[in-house]
Amino acid sequence: MTKNYSVIIAAAGKGKRINSPIPKPYILIKKYPIIIQTLKHFDRIKEIERIIIVTHKDWVNYCNGLLKKYLPESKTDKKYYVIKGGKERQDSVNEGLKLVNTKFVFVHDAVRPFIDSSLILNLIKSSKKYDAVIPVIPSINTLKEIKSGFVCKHLSRDRIYEVQTPQLFRVDILKSAYKKAYLDKFYATDDSALVERLGIKVKAIEGIKNNIKITNPQDLLYAKVMLKAKSLVGLDVIDSLDSNRKTDNGMDSRFRGNDKQAKQKLKRKK
User: Fold this and answer.
1) Highest mean pLDDT range out of 1-5, 142-146, 258-262?
2) By residue range, what is the domain housing residue 68?
3) Domain membership flag for residue 116
4) β-strands 132-138, 143-147 pairing
């Protein structure tokens, strides 16, 4: 099989908003760093050739150590690269692009561990027809545009969506978008915004409601609750986030042996 896909993991944030002494991607949840829980989903996708992690310069060695511990070369067919990031997220992704040699590239936030294989595979399927694809979910809140402290416009919720990652692009297009952005001195927090500036249509597909970006302490608490709920039904902390690797009996082979334990936990809860 030709592996036409690479992944850039944006992991250079310092975690100031979460008031953590270590960057958010390396915070432990249920004994595993967030970034490892994120990487596991991409590691099992056979169409992916390489995964590039862009992190803060002070944490490059630490990240390499995590890969050796949780994703050693003997247990993965992916090529992993860990490089230092730039000043802004856009600068970091641009550094990652320099190592991409495939036709398509995913760009994903390291602190979105609640993705699953179905979303990744749906993006890959869409890339057969579209050059840029992003996952979105409908906005559930009433939205207003505010100017100088006053409402100036009501935004129709029917046309407003929240954008998630991973986002998938044809590599030559994303590189062109980045080149134009730097020429124009334009910065965005979202890669699809850069592609849109080229006049290219970006396809939107259904995202995942729980695919949150862990940004503040409340998000971290939510993530812990989510993982605890997963463990109560007997699923491995990391692998439970992805229900798509199944055997003939409908369960991932790595979950075997947890059935009895799960039933006991649920019985005690009752």
Assistant:
1) 142-146
2) 5-211
3) yes
4) unpaired
Token pair recorded at residue 44 = 């099992």
What's the CATH code of the domain at 12? 3.90.550.10
Token reading at 31: 């004994």
What is the helix (H) or strand (E) element at residue 84, kind and residue range? strand 79-84
Tens of pLDDT, residues 173-184: 999 999 999 999
Q: How far apart are CA 79 and CA 260, in angstroms?
A: 37
Phi, psi of 201 (to 5 degrees): -75, 135
Q: Which helix (H) or strand (E) holds 68?
A: helix 60-70
Task: With CA atoms as reference, report the closest residue to 212 among 173, 249, 239, 241.
Answer: 241
In-domain check, residue 179: yes
The DSSP string of 243-261 is -----TTSS-GGGTT-HHH
Taking the chain, what is the end-to-end CA distance rounded to the nearest angstrom?
48
Would you say residue 6 has pLDDT above 80?
Answer: yes
What one-character DSSP code corresponds to residue 111?
A: T
The first and second tokens of residue 172, run together, are 């030559």
Collapse the DSSP code of 267 into the 3-class scheme (helix H, G, I; strand E, B; otherwise coil) and give the result. helix
Residue with tokens 């992991």: 11
The total number of structural domains in the chain stands at 1
What tokens appear for 175 in the block? 């590189």
Is 165 inside a domain boundary?
yes
The answer to whether residue 268 is domain-embedded is no
- In a 13 Å sphere around the CA of 189, the CA atoms on its Cβ side amount to 3
